[in-house]
């Protein structure tokens, strides 16, 4: 059984605070130039962790990722015949 995950984008002021941000979830990416980090947490724990992150003075903004709420099953997706043949061949 897979747990439902939620992405959190955390905007911060200084790179030295990454260790404290890392304690709240699985750190995926950190941008040094734009000063943001992407974390993944369980969806059931998202609201609690978002509130705790916003309490820190070095964090500018916390925003959720919309990926779990985007529909990923497409109705009119057409398969490419050449790719379908390659997949069957094991290429």
Task: Give a quick summary of the entry.
By secondary structure, this protein is an alpha+beta fold. It is built from three helices and four strands.
Describe the structure.
It is built from 3 helices and 4 strands; from the N terminus they run βαββαβα. It has 91 residues and is an alpha+beta fold. A 4-stranded antiparallel beta sheet has the order 2-3-1-4. β2 and β3 form a beta hairpin. The longest helix has 9 residues, at 46-54. The two termini are 31 Å apart. The mean pLDDT is 85.
Topology:
Elements: E1 5-12, H1 18-22, E2 26-31, E3 36-42, H2 46-54, E4 59-64, H3 81-89
Number of helices: 3
**Helicity, in percent?**
25-40%
The overall pLDDT average reads 85
What class do helices, strands and sheet pairing give? alpha+beta
Strand order in the largest sheet = 2-3-1-4
Q: What general form does the structure show?
A: elongated
Question: How large is the radius of gyration?
Answer: 19 Å
**Biggest sheet descriptor:** 4 strands, antiparallel
Low-confidence stretches: none
Portion in beta strands: 25-35%
For the terminal residues, how far apart are their CA atoms? 31 Å
Number of beta strands: 4
SSE run: EHEEHEH
Notable characteristics:
91 residues, alpha+beta, 4-stranded antiparallel beta sheet, 3 helices, elongated
């Amino acid at each position: 059984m897979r747990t439902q995950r939620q992405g959190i984008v955390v905007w911060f002021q200084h790179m030295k605070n990454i260790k404290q941000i890392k304690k709240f979830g699985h750190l995926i990416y950190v941008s040094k130039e734009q000063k943001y980090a992407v974390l993944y947490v369980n969806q059931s724990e998202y609201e609690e962790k978002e509130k705790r992150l916003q309490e820190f003075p070095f964090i500018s903004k916390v925003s959720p990722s919309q990926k779990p709420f985007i529909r990923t099953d497409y109705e009119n997706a057409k398969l490419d015949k050449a790719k379908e043949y390659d997949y069957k061949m094991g290429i």
